[in-house]
Amino acid sequence: MRKALTLLILALGALVLFVGCGPAAPGETGTEIIEADQAQALLDGGAVLVDAQTAVKYAKEHIEGAVNISRADIVVNEPFPNLVGSAAQIEEVFSSRGIGNDTTVVIYDSNKNMDSARLWWTFKYFGHDAVKVVSGGLNALRAEGFAVTAAAPSVSRASFSAAAPRSEMIADRNEIKMMVDEAPAGAVIVDTRSQEEFNEGTIPGSVLLNFTGNNFADETYRPVRQIRIRYLEEGIDYDDTVYMFCKTSIRGAQTFLALYNAGYRDLKLYDGAWVEWSANPMNPVYKPEVPGFQLNTADNS
Q: What is the C-alpha to C-alpha distance for residues 219 and 137, in angstroms, rounded to an integer?
């Protein structure tokens, strides 16, 4: 009897652990986002530190030794804003900043991890995996004791060759339209914009998960466990295909990174995003009925 009771207790304990932890993630976790106190070891090992601020902000202040790759350097703005640039454009930018195919890259920004994430996504999209994002960006590195300067470093040109784009990381309007029309099982569209923007109109079937919820108040990323819980609570499982968008998929990229770092692998960024979707009157739009709602027209990406 005692042996049977012991086995029952062990079985119940195992069940509690299984239910509490949720399904196992298919990918490694914690591989892409680093804390500020981990950056120095990578830089000592030869990594290139990249500041993803705008050129104006970089000229005002940046971490000593960092080269600048701004959002403007890696996108095109036709036919819609902030679309991923061509392989030739990316090769020139990365090479001119001293980044080759064997270079480890450490990225930071001062914009809630958005521009770091978009640059990280661009590196991965063109086949470069040796890239990390500093959680909390400039402020976190400054707090860790990294020197700040306005002087740009001397850079020796390198040779970066882009691999074939990873088509599995991106979605176009036709794929999103198919998602809306067919609503396949095991797939979800995540709107990473604000509640106000969502209320004004969204892609039908989208789940609203504002990108800011991936961060703490100090703009550092939440840890893997909290990211997992946030998305699992919305029924978004590791096995799902997750499509992300915002206004121009800069905030969407921040969520892409959060999920990838948490073990999700079947992720797609809708690059044309809301600006493309809403520009075509043939695309359906869902507008929640919200009594007394007034749109906040703040410009976000």
A: 8
